């Protein structure tokens, strides 16, 4: 087991990689806590949950909305959770987002922590303090920065994931390597079959490396003030549009967004064509690149709601060479023009 500590503004967040999730009782307060989970996770692991009130949501992105948030807040009130209370989110990225955001605004903020059950959340979603919900088709438009007190990442839980859910999570692992660590990128490429087979020892090592990398970025720029943290959005500008328009799983959509970002990075001289193809080849090795059918016109319309937009300009993440990335302010029209010239057949 490895423990990674984030110290931000005199607040500490502990991430436990390889810790048995059933030991979560050791980290919980003496009383006044409640579990938020989804129906699938509850069906698989509910019998081993700590003894306390449990509220379930429907699995999937459609639960990340204000209606769900209101219902959960009523559940906390009904359970007698007050300002000394604690919210434990047990689930993947959606549950962690909902539980973290609810805890951050309930009674102006109460304590919370996560047991992260999916690869996506262990690598990315549960770590770093971003908590958000969607409004209609606009992703994560209401949110806040607030760190969980702890995150448990137990790789044994990944064995119960559906295959496509597991593979989806690999996109964020590859993203971290592309923008921050060339050695991690090579390690992933050298172990494709072991990763596909969810080798627990290897996964623990890879997840720990990814969390340490993300922790270093978050510690430096928690609220995206200096711009350093924005590099973690690599692939998300187009990926979020693909996810919203098609309903594609987050990781697959982000992988498609990364492929587009690689082509744009190559077209603008930030990376070589060979590097772009190398990244896309690794994404293809895991079956992450799917046909999405989103048109340039749809991208143009949806980019106007991007959280990274400032006026008509977007903070677009260029990658290259592998292991490095840079945020570039670009006009939305300029991004679309490059997209049409090097990718789109419209």
Characterise this structure.
With 346 residues, this protein is an alpha/beta fold. It folds into two domains: 2-160, Rossmann fold (3-Layer(aba) Sandwich), CATH 3.40.50.1970; 163-342, Up-down Bundle (Dehydroquinate synthase-like, alpha domain), CATH 1.20.1090.10. It is 45% helix and 20% strand. It is built from 13 helices and twelve strands. The protein has helices spanning 39-45, 66-78, 93-105, 119-125, 163-180, 182-190, 192-196, 200-220, 236-246, 250-267, 273-285, 296-303, 332-342; strands at residues 2-8, 11-17, 33-38, 54-57, 86-91, 111-116, 130-135, 138-145, 150-153, 309-310, 313-319, 325-331. The protein has a seven-stranded mixed β-sheet. A three-stranded antiparallel β-sheet has the order 10-11-12. A two-stranded antiparallel ribbon has the order 7-8. Helix 5 crosses helix 8. The termini are far apart. The model has no long low-confidence stretch (mean pLDDT 94).
Task: Describe the structure concisely for a colleague.
With 346 residues, this protein is of the alpha/beta class. It is 45% helix and 20% strand. The radius of gyration is 19 Å and the shape is globular.
Q: What are the key terms here?
A:
alpha/beta; Rossmann fold; 3-stranded antiparallel beta sheet; 346 residues; 7-stranded mixed beta sheet; Dehydroquinate synthase-like, alpha domain
